[in-house]
Prior knowledge:
Layout: H1 2-8, H2 19-33, E1 39-43, H3 53-59, E2 62-66, H4 70-80, E3 88-91, H5 104-113, H6 118-133, E4 145-151, H7 159-167, H8 175-203, E5 204-218, H9 225-231, H10 236-250, H11 253-263, E6 272-281, E7 284-293
Parallel strand pairs: 1-2, 1-4, 2-3, 4-5
Antiparallel strand pairs: 5-7, 6-7
Helix pairs in contact: 6-8, 8-11
Protein name: Class I SAM-dependent methyltransferase
Amino acid sequence: MQQAESAELDWGEKEWGTHRYHTRQLLEHAMEASSVLDRAAVLGAGNHGGVNLPQLARGFAQLTVLDTEANSIEEVLEQSGLGATANVKTLTNVDYTCLDQLNFYETWEDMLLNHTSAADIACYIKDCAFEARRHEALPHLKQSFDLVVSCSVHTQLFYIHALSQFAGYAPQYAEADIRQIVDTLSYLRNSLVEDYNRLLSSLLRPDGRLVMWSDMIRLSDENEQLLEQLYSLNSEQARIKFLFRAFGQHGIEPAVLGLKDLHDRVKQENQLFKCWVWLADKDKRYIAAGFSGRLR
């Protein structure tokens, strides 16, 4: 049964315009532009099954897939027919942010349980931004890969988990205190996004290529007109300019920060930038964006 399902899974080869179609184009662009196809890494490999793992496993001598959770990777590998493939290595429970090394989530929960003041919480969270930067997530894999792929990781880093933890305790704080805590969580989130981008670049061998994509804007009735405006533009340059302006006004903050920071560091020559509508599930639609290129 599983083999039949794997055979039917479309990795963007059959149906035009799907999420996997666009991510496949980014991967193909990177592979065609690479002179060495030895080792590739996929971070966030379990996120929505959007990356064509069979294509990468065929194209590279070794493929390393990484994620924060083991079960999501196992599911995607099964769907891909790569469960027991010799050249595929898996790394799970990866601490992209280094917050686990600081025991952040346990300390954060204890502070909330003990009704710690907003000022003390804010001070602790800011300290964590500096402490996290002193640690390394994957030091043993520095400069190990000819291709590094990041699959919608920026929007998954830390922030949603921390906010959901805080939600149950927010009623014990005044409105100004809530704002102070949330603002400081945003500060840490932004710092961790920049740290994650540094992690991506540290994994690349000299002349290696980076592919990344992310959900950028969640579509709703209020911003649906963005698609009409986007499709009305005739040149690629005009569309990219419009998109970055729209990202600033309507975008998911960590995705916008992560994409802009990396895009500003990508060499202009032989770069591919793409955007598309991503139907994540029946109730969620996003404008997604990503690129393939070499960092300066």
